[in-house]
Design a protein that fits this description.
Oligomer: single chain
Number of strands: 21
Radius of gyration: 27 Å
Number of helices: 5
Largest sheet: 18 strands, mixed
Strand content: 35-45%
Shape: elongated
Structural class: alpha+beta
Order of helices and strands: HEEEEEHEEEEEEEEEEEEHEEHEEH
Length: about 400
């Protein structure tokens, strides 16, 4: 008669079998199945390097990228982590506790002929096809319509992101970026994002020859109601960061000048109102010339002022969903700005046309009173106090949905 295993041996054998089953399921079978399903859902437009699954169901997509993109453009995300919270089969809704994007990189390019190339088209179509389509009828229960699955992410995070812009149209190629980008916001709903979405963003704006400055934004938006309230601040950025754009018929020499900006954009019922306060300092030397003839010399305009500063406010308004129809007005913040702008506008109230990409924007000049100039400075201080010049805090935690079905837990 063979020897029967002891209780200790049985426990060890059971532990070994459970461990083997664990590694087989979470180390190979489940990740392979998720990877196949994900690749099938997004098709050939998006490449996914690998998938990792943690207990009980934390899914990590590694090296996700737009598989087809124009030369000079890029869309790549080093890691996407999805942490589920609850799922309701009855309500066909999946709640996600968190979606994190680590080191996303997005690069667009403007070619010499003026066309802007991005890697978004195929990537967006692939993600749209992966999400359930919204039926034509508002009532998903009507005959002929398909049930719709909704996804609600409680928190969306971005860490170490980079948004890069390369411009080949200017004589000296320009390369700028928003680097060290971090973002936190939520809740986010798909395919219909109808809820209010809080957000906080910070990054470092980098221009020509690595001139850089921090940028902060925070606020909220509500796509369903076509409403938003977002405040931003750009700390002093050397204007030399945009040097390639200063050459041409209208030539600017900025030397050590710096730009500081604060602004607030609000919208209700699709009507946008915005005020962006601008300040340029360190103007001991700077001049503006047109076709070789000096139009403005800062030293002369400053007079006896030892530290000349240019201030003003850009005011915008229009429909939130049609930026091309926004109206822009520039309000001088001091007499120096008025003296510089008056020859360019020829007469007060006439619009100056500025070309941005393929679009021409008209900017009008609004004369300002002493009270309005003081208001520009006060508004800038209010925005700074709102942002507090610190790393953006996470949005307030939305209430967790009541469990309807068996949880798939974190």
């Amino acid at each position: 008669m063979g020897l029967r295993p002891s209780v200790r041996e049985r426990v060890l054998i059971a532990a070994f079998l459970l461990t083997a089953a664990w590694h087989g399921l979470y180390g190979h079978l489940l990740p392979s199945w998720v990877l196949r399903r994900a690749r099938h859902a997004v098709g050939n437009a998006v490449s996914i390097g690998d998938v990792r699954v943690g207990f009980p169901l934390r899914v990590v997509f590694v090296d996700v990228a737009a598989a087809r993109s124009s030369p000079g453009t890029e869309l790549r995300i080093r890691r996407i982590t999805v942490v589920p919270q609850w799922v309701s089969w009855a309500r066909r809704t999946l709640w996600l506790r968190r979606v994190s994007l680590d080191e996303p990189r997005f690069r667009i390019q403007r070619l010499q002929e003026g066309r802007i190339e991005t890697p978004l088209a195929d990537f967006s179509q692939a993600l749209a096809s992966a999400l359930p389509a919204v039926p034509a009828s508002a009532d998903a229960g009507e005959a002929g319509s398909q049930p719709v699955w909704h996804v609600i992410a409680e928190t969306v995070q971005v860490a170490g992101g980079t948004v890069e812009f390369v411009d080949e149209r200017v004589a000296q190629s320009f390369r700028g970026s928003l680097a060290n980008l971090s973002f936190v916001g939520g809740p986010f709903a798909a395919p219909r994002g109808t809820d209010r979405f809080s957000l906080a963003v910070q990054g470092r704006l980098i221009g020509h020859r690595e001139h850089a400055a921090p940028l902060y934004c925070s606020g909220w938006l509500h796509l369903g109601a076509k409403a938003l309230d977002i405040s931003c601040q750009l700390e002093p950025l050397p204007l030399a960061a945009f040097e390639p754009y200063y050459e041409g018929p209208l030539k600017v020499r900025v030397y050590d000048a710096r730009l500081k900006a604060t602004g607030r954009l609000t919208a209700q019922d699709n009507a946008v109102e915005g005020r962006i306060q601008l300040e340029i300092d360190q103007l001991s030397e700077a001049d503006l010339s047109f076709l070789g003839k000096t139009v403005a010399d800062i030293k002369k305009l400053a007079g006896d002022s030892p530290h000349p500063v240019l201030t003003g406010e850009l005011q915008l308004s229009g429909p939130m969903d049609v930026p091309a129809d926004w109206r822009l007005q520039l309000a001088p913040g001091n007499e120096m700005v008025e003296n510089i702008l008056e020859p360019l506008f020829k007469r007060r109230g006439e619009a100056v046309k500025i070309k941005v990409g393929q679009q021409t924007i008209e900017v009008g000049l609004t004369p300002t009173s002493d009270e309005a100039k003081t208001g520009i400075q006060e508004t800038s201080k209010t925005v700074q106090e709102t942002l507090k010049l610190v790393a953006p805090p996470p949005p307030s935690e939305p209430a967790a949905p009541a469990p309807v079905e068996t949880p798939v837990a974190q």
